[in-house]
Amino acid sequence: MEIKFKVWIEKDGKVLFGRGRDDILKAIDEQHSLNAAAKRLEMSYRAAWGRLKASEERIGIKLVEIGVHDKSMQLTQQARAIIDRFEKLEKDVEKLLNAANHDFKKLIHSTEK
User: Fold this and answer.
1) Hey, which of 4, 70, 86, 107 has its CA 20 to 30 A from 113?
2) Does domain 10-82 have CATH number 3.40.50.2000?
3) pLDDT tens figures, 86-103
4) Closest-CA residue to 26 (of 68, 67, 82, 102)
């Protein structure tokens, strides 16, 4: 038995940020390129670009910047802050659900006897 969950942030029914956007931004941070990030995540460039642009528009801030000289892609400070806070939220929810899962296992096993 295991409790499952997914966390994402929406506004007016549209996704602002979630695990997929988190993965895209972290891959961009590692690869310094949206194309390379999309390949690493085994998704199309168009899909990665669409999600990135949708999040920027819906949140109202730039998540990436393009280098003037080398055209490499870098995360903005706001993007880094969103990633850090989102990942902390996921860990906090996971801890809560692990504790609840433990409690439910004890309750269910105690009634099976």
Assistant:
1) 4
2) no
3) 999 999 999 999 999 999
4) 82
